[in-house]
Amino acid sequence: MKFYLISKYFYSNLNSSDLEIKHFYKEADNFFSLLDQINFIEKYDKSEIIFKFFDTIRKNPLNSYFINSLDIENEIFIFLFDIYIKIIEKCCQIYFTIRQRVFNFKKLKKYKKYFISEDFICFLFEIDHFESKFRNLNEKNKAKIDNLISFFYRIKIIFSNFDKIFFNFRCLSLKTKLLLIPKPDRDQNLLFDSYVFLQIDRNNIIESTIDAFKNFSPEIFSQKNWFVKYSNEEGSGIGLLYEFFNIFGKCIDESVYFAPFKSLEFISICVSSPEEQNKIEQLYYFTGVIMAKSIFMNSVMSFEFINSFYLHLLQEKFNIEDLKDIDFEYYKNLISLRYIENIDPYLTFDISVKIGQKIISENLIENGSEIKVTKDNLEDYIQKMAEFKMFKGMKVYLDKLKEGFQSLFNHCFYNMFTHSDLKIVIEGEKRININEWKAATRYRGKYYTDHQLIVWFWIFLGKSDEITKRKLLFFTTGLSYLPIGGFKSSKFIDHPFTITSDDRKDLFPKSQTCSNLLILPLYDQEDVLLDKIEHAIEVINYGFL
What we know:
Elements: H1 4-11, H2 19-32, H3 46-59, H4 62-69, H5 75-104, H6 120-124, H7 134-140, H8 142-158, H9 167-170, H10 174-180, E1 195-200, H11 205-213, H12 218-223, E2 225-230, H13 239-254, H14 274-296, H15 307-314, H16 328-335, E3 350-355, E4 358-363, H17 378-391, H18 395-408, H19 411-414, H20 419-427, H21 434-440, E5 442-444, H22 452-463, H23 466-477, E6 498-502, E7 510-512, E8 517-521, H24 526-538
Parallel strand pairs: 1-2, 5-6, 6-8
Antiparallel strand pairs: 3-4, 7-8
């Protein structure tokens, strides 16, 4: 394959900072010379050649051939397959570089249509990323996506040291990763037996959730949609499920059993009996299940935990280097022990931990308070300290959290995410952009963009603090925080945030959280509007239909 044409095109645009790119193309040329997939024709414009190059890769039959042959144990086949995967990796890198140039150079703007807005993986499988096609992505291309994920996962099995292949997923934008996750089957919404019915007591969220969840197997949770019904309430619809994610998350955030992950301090919990330990393990397990479901539903949960809480979900083994992203200052202090000539003779394998209002000594290993740290066991000490700093002696419970999370969240998708990704996806966006909210809003009834009451409404929101904005968001959508993508995320694709009018001016505002609808009476005065809104959003369960 005559790869030199692409090289020549980029060489003409190189500057002194592009030497690494030049080396990369030289290396890539060696790989592509092993497989003649395309012959470039010099008469074409060079940018068009690049497009044709990727178009040919996209259409080549090698992908299907290797997918169907992965079970063959043959040294020659594995050798060829290894080369093929390296080509895929190089294609990804080349694509990112080319896309950057196409989008940054005016003379190349006409080729923009050839490049989707996110990544080469989706380009390879002809998957469209544009917002208007969001729904069709998971319906039309589900088989392609599943094959793709399975393809790379099976590669990992064959090449035991080939974990780096998943870098091609981890480097994708977070929005792209979320697009790859299958959404609930909309056709099931009309089928009564496609639901898991969860009876929840608003006055006892955690206990009633555990009681409701104990009645079902993990398979049921993963295969069926969830239907939440609150005790002694008439409300129904999917909006109540989004509300459930929110209020359950808030209860977890305030729970003493999750307090260690609210802070980087050395905090743990005291368990007084086997019964209490079993209760905590159940709570962590079902929290993991609910976290996974919230991702599939493009919802968020109202808690905020440190990064190590999410790190434990993604890895099996941990070391001192993992601490770097959790608490960099403490990481530096720990590794500095390696360079101390004389270790403190009073330093032992224990640590002072805050439990409730008390400070107690916690052993890092058995009889740790009696074992001195020496040069010989220093690395063990550093490892144990790093683990306690990250996981607060709560590993038995975090293992349950992971077990519940993985019961719904397929391992193939699992490998795409970093702990930072999970934190953002599960906790949501922390700030609400009023301009984006306003731009995404639709109006019905007697309302329109310049209607006086609508003008008052946006002035009020624009002056409000984040807490008030989140209360109104929760009142109308069941979410206190926006998922990734904000008002363009999948929750708002079928039902954009909408304000509709009501002629009955004596009523308070109401909402339909299942359709993101705010029903706003036609108040005559601005102060009446503000008073009614402020009253409505302060009443937690008021207005949900």
